[in-house]
Amino acid sequence: MERISWDQYFMAQSHLLALRSTCTRLSVGATIVRDKRMIAGGYNGSVSGGVHCTDEGCYVIDSHCVRTIHAEMNALLQCAKFGVPTEGAEIYVTHFPCIHCTKALIQAGIQTVYYSKNYKNHPYAEELFKQSGVRVEQVELDEMIIDLKNHEKLEFVSMLIQKLAQTGTTELDIRQLHEQANQLFTSYS
Ligand SMILES: [Zn+2]
Ligand SMILES: [Zn+2]
């Protein structure tokens, strides 16, 4: 079996964290890594003990939800709370950081930012990263790697298509089904 890369491993962790998000507008996850070890993680959610956007709706001011602490901030604050140094660390985030998080990440000494999806990438955030010598790299998550049944699913679908072909389904339909299945099961790598 193929071994998962560090980049994919940490990015998968951030995507997992995003599933814990309590804001209905966007689910973001962030993992801070040092020497190939996860030192903190966060997702966007309310202050501990506070009401959740998922229960009471977002608290929107100037088209931003002000109830939530961003995933990157939560991860950094976890380090602050438990006294874990962030100098020279890396962060894996599901979405390109906002300007506020960008500033906090730079100031906390984060050296590399890996992000999965472009999200309202602000030119000022990009400029700040550049200015501070922070490396920014896009790492798209290959979702197949976290689907442990991917191989079985692929075999099942191809078996179904083969059976369909025997029932007199037109060749054109079969070809289309093949293409659709291929698109679904093709990985990034
Ligand atoms: Zn919200
Ligand atoms: Zn942010």
Short description:
The protein is of the alpha/beta class and 189 residues long. It has 7 helices and 7 strands.
Main beta sheet, described?
A: 5 strands, mixed
Tally of helical segments: 7
Q: In the CATH scheme, what's the topology name of the largest domain?
A: Cytidine Deaminase, domain 2
Shape: elongated
Report how far the terminal alpha carbons are from each other: 15 Å
What is the CATH homology-level superfamily of the largest domain?
Cytidine Deaminase, domain 2
Q: What is the helix content?
A: 40-55%
The ligands found in this model are: zinc ion
Number of strands: 7
Strand order of the largest sheet: 2-1-5-6-7
Strand content: 15-25%
Could you tell me the radius of gyration in angstroms?
20 Å
Q: Which CATH architecture of the largest domain would you pick?
A: 3-Layer(aba) Sandwich
GO molecular function: dCMP deaminase activity; zinc ion binding
Family: Belongs to the cytidine and deoxycytidylate deaminase family.
Cofactor: Zn(2+)
Domain CMP/dCMP-type deaminase: 5-137
Which helices and strands appear, and what pairs or packs with what?
Layout lengths: L5 H13 L10 E6 L2 E7 L9 H4 L3 E2 L2 E2 L5 H12 L7 E6 L3 H9 L4 E6 L5 H9 L3 E4 L11 H17 L4 H15 L4
Parallel strand pairs: 5-6, 6-7
Antiparallel strand pairs: 1-2, 1-5, 3-4
Helix pairs in contact: 4-5, 6-7
One zinc ion (ZN) binds next to loops.
Written account of the structure:
- InterPro entries: APOBEC/CMP_deaminase_Zn-bd, CMP_dCMP_dom, Competence_ComEB, Cytidine_deaminase-like, dCMP_deaminase-rel, Deoxycytidylate_deaminase_dom.
- It comes from Bacillus solimangrovi.
- Belongs to the cytidine and deoxycytidylate deaminase family.
- By secondary structure, the chain is α/β, with parallel strands linked by helices.
- The protein has 2 domains: 6-143, Cytidine Deaminase, domain 2 (3-Layer(aba) Sandwich); 150-186.
- It has helices at residues 6-18, 53-56, 71-82, 99-107, 123-131, 150-166, 171-185; strands spanning 29-34, 37-43, 60-61, 64-65, 90-95, 112-117, 135-138.
- A 5-stranded mixed β-sheet has the order 2-1-5-6-7, with helices on both faces. A two-stranded antiparallel ribbon has the order 3-4.
- A hairpin with a 2-residue loop joins strand 3 and strand 4 (64-65).
- The protein starts with 5 loop residues before the first helix and ends with a helix.
- The mean pLDDT is 93.
- Bound molecules: zinc ion (2 copies).
- The site of one zinc ion (ZN) has 6 residues, from helix 4.
